[in-house]
């Protein structure tokens, strides 16, 4: 992932929002997000996608040693604030009272503290009719095993933004195999730098590039009519 490549596809307020969030410019970023949502009536899902792009940049800077844990925490706090504003607006138009279509277990794998992408996926699955259990960030393999046994999901969604998360995802999938659980559900992986090569490495069934794709995968796997 290249930072300039992310920004090059954006213009105006969208570019400013991503850049300001990634640069920890909290006051300007939150003010702009509010204006985009309430004055410009920007699609809340698009604003959340811009937040995910900003976290991609933050994750890259963390891996390169430019950012450290305090920056990750601040970025998460800013993105949570934007999400808290945007999500209710999205729910108003998405019909959140849909019948539950299946169970999805969602968590960020151990060694990774990112949660904005996971939170967006959890929210989108919920308002599209799925029963979601979000077990948080930095989740150990043993916890995934326990949660699978108790929740009995149809789909397990493993999230991670840092490249070190790829090994954690692989380790988690292999643990499902060892415990004889792998055949009981589908596995999707998602995060800023995940592609088909990473999907194959981890042993997951599919990867999703955004929250809409995560919903589409669940719909396809569970044969939900469009």
UniProtKB/TrEMBL annotation:
Spell out the InterPro entries in the cross-references.
Cbl-bd_cap, Cobalamin-bd, Cobalamin-bd_sf, Met_Synthase/Corrinoid, Meth_synthase_dom
Keywords from the named record: Cobalt, Metal-binding
Entry GO MF terms: cobalamin binding; metal ion binding; methionine synthase activity
UniProt entry tagged with the keyword Metal-binding: yes
Q: Which residues form the B12-binding N-terminal domain?
A: 4-98
Listed GO biological process terms: homocysteine metabolic process; tetrahydrofolate metabolic process
Q: Which Pfam families match?
A: B12-binding, B12-binding_2
Q: Which GO cellular component term is one of those annotated? A: cytosol
Residues covered by the B12-binding domain: 101-226
Q: What is the protein's name according to its record?
A: Cobalamin B12-binding domain-containing protein
Q: Which organism is it from?
A: Thauera phenylacetica B4P
